[in-house]
């Protein structure tokens, strides 16, 4: 929980400071991990993991065209 909180707070703070947190995200997290052991452990553990996959979820609804009146 501590790692998640520190990571979130670091990213929100970067956004509020006007930083490009999308491009700078990894560096922002590495900087935050210098003073947060649990975040450093999490970054070390998850460093080679990616979540790039095609969704297998299907839509729960079907669009129905309606006439404009």
From TrEMBL:
GO molecular function list: magnesium ion binding
Record keyword DNA-binding present: no
Keywords tagged on the record: Chloroplast, Plastid
PANTHER family the UniProt entry points to: RIBULOSE BISPHOSPHATE CARBOXYLASE, RIBULOSE BISPHOSPHATE CARBOXYLASE LARGE CHAIN
Protein name (record): Ribulose-1,5-bisphosphate carboxylase/oxygenase large subunit
Organism: Pyropia yezoensis f. yezoensis
Name of the encoding gene: rbcL
